[in-house]
């Protein structure tokens, strides 16, 4: 297994020459951009994928690796069901073991109130024939033996899966390249070329690519990229810390979380641990501007967000990050090849003691790695997947709000269809861009 997460020191794997022209240019080599490029190439379109750093080096190799239907927004659920099918198919189309395992996902309810909140989500699963169940306290203890804590019960979806993100997303890029996508790492797109109100190409640090269709899948950088094109997107990013343990005996082969910790088994025998429901926001100019859109989320505070007055230098919303530049100037995307936040040291210590106390029967363990990722989020916790009406030729797939890894392949399939004039096969009205400007109320996704 390669080192994880992927970073600037990881070798360059994809170094196709930059073509002069393409049918579609995809910006961003995370799970969304990679999946989009894969389905575009599969449909026979001349496809170029441009990544400023390394494939999957940002959120897409730093996430927990949960591929879950459980707790999703009802409008995401049909798309997530499709993603589950696609993950199984794609795992069979690569000779890399991506660690795809149907281990289930379980939300442990510390009290009756949490259990009732989980129960309220069950009808969404029933509507789509997903076999999510509410477990009793005794069933929960049977499912995950060795727990020291007694839970009121749990929400459990046996068909949910896991995979190793730092292996899986580069493997999907390998399939895309094999099927004809030209993938160029270390190549930032500075801005779009626009003529007579239409997209005519992209300007990269290596030169121009002519195209009439661009898909922006820039993760935490999308709103900065769009602001330079005078398109408003109220997207922010929060830091989330993760640690990987040394191998331990199996207590549960899926992913589980309570109010203090999330854990999931990895294919190397260790567990990935993360604080339960805890995020950190570095306040910058975009956060100030977007504040009114986030009031609903701030009041609900589903992730117990902690605030810092400023982001480190070079971050998308740092006070010193340029907001405007031209194609002949170095852009913020080249200045920061890989957004690689320092993990929260105090949280790492806490994770160790919480996990040990939760499973007193486990032997002592160490962390073999610890990292953080910046989760790009939207005010209502669901993504933007849409054509930009104001700029024909531009399609956006971003703001996955902390759950884009699992759903990635299906969102990529949809974006490929949107960019090439095909019917997307799902109702995407919940994910439209203009919901933030047309006076619609902010309706929070479940945040479960
Ligand atoms: C700690 C953590 C845990 C998570 N756990 C889960 C989970 O268990 N399950 C789940 O489903 N999701 C999870 N997520 C969320 C998930 O990882 C993200 O939603 C998903 O990876 C987003 O993919 P993306 O392709 O949109 O963005 P990213 O993976 O961030 O990729 C965007 C890419 O675009 C590139 N880019 C940006 N601008 C430019 C430019 N101008 N030119 C060229 N390249 C550019 C960036 O370098 C980056 O590589 C988690 C996230 C984190 C951080």
- What is the arithmetic mean of pLDDT? 96
Task: Assign the structural class, choosing from mainly alpha, mainly beta, alpha/beta, alpha+beta, or little secondary structure.
Answer: alpha/beta
Number of helices: 12
How far apart the termini lie comes to 31 Å
Q: Based on CA inertia axes, which overall geometry fits?
A: globular
Q: What is the total number of structural domains?
A: 1
CATH superfamily: FAD/NAD(P)-binding domain
- Fraction in beta strands: 15-25%
| CATH hierarchy: architecture | 3-Layer(bba) Sandwich
Instruction: Tell me how many strands there are.
Output: 21
Helical residues, percent: 25-40%
Give a quick account of the main beta sheet: strands, pairing sense, barrel closure.
Answer: 10 strands, mixed
Q: Ligands in the structure?
A: flavin-adenine dinucleotide
CATH class: Alpha Beta
Report the uncertain regions. Answer: none
Radius of gyration: 21 Å
CATH topology: FAD/NAD(P)-binding domain
């Amino acid at each position: 297994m390669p080192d994880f997460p992927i970073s600037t020191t990881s070798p360059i794997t994809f170094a196709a020459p930059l073509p002069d022209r393409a049918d579609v240019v995809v910006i961003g080599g995370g799970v969304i951009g990679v999946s989009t490029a894969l389905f575009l190439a599969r449909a026979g379109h001349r496809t170029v994928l441009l990544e400023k750093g390394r494939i999957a080096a940002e959120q897409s190799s730093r996430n927990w690796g949960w591929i879950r239907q459980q707790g999703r927004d009802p409008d995401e659920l049909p798309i997530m069901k499709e993603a589950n099918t696609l993950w199984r198919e794609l795992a069979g189309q690569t000779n890399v073991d991506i660690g795809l395992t149907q281990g289930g996902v379980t939300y442990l309810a510390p009290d009756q109130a949490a259990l009732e909140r989980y129960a309220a989500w069950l009808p969404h699963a029933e509507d789509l024939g997903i076999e999510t169940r509410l477990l009793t306290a005794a069933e929960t203890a049977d499912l995950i033996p060795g727990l020291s804590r007694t839970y009121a019960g749990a929400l459990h979806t046996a068909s949910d899966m896991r995979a190793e993100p730092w292996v899986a997303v580069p493997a999907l890029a390998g399939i895309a390249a094999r099927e004809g996508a030209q993938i160029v790492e270390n190549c930032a797109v500075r801005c779009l070329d626009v003529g007579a109100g239409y997209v005519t190409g992209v300007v990269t640090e290596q030169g121009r690519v002519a195209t009439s269709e661009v898909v922006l899948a820039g993760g935490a950088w999308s709103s900065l990229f769009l602001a330079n094109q005078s398109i408003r997107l109220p997207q922010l990013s929060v830091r989330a810390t993760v640690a990987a343990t040394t191998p331990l005996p199996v207590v549960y082969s899926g992913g589980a979380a309570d109010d203090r910790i999330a854990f999931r088994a990895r294919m190397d025998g260790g567990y990935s641990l993360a604080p339960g429901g805890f995020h950190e926001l570095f306040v910058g100019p975009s956060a100030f501007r977007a504040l009114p859109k986030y009031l609903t989320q701030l009041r609900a505070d589903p992730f117990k967000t902690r605030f810092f007055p400023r982001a480190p230098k070079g971050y998308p919303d740092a006070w010193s990050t340029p907001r405007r530049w031209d194609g002949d100037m170095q852009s913020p995307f080249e200045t920061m090849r890989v957004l690689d936040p320092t993990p929260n040291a105090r949280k790492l210590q806490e994770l160790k003691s919480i996990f040990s106390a939760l499973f007193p029967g486990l032997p002592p363990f160490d962390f073999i790695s610890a990292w953080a990722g910046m989760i790009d989020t939207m005010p209502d916790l669901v993504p933007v997947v849409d054509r930009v009406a104001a700029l024909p030729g531009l399609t956006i797939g971003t703001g996955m709000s902390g759950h884009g890894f699992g759903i990635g392949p299906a969102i990529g399939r949809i974006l490929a269809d949107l960019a090439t004039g095909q019917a997307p096969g799902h109702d995407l009205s919940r994910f439209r861009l203009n919901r933030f400007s047309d006076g619609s109320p902010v309706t929070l996704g479940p945040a479960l």
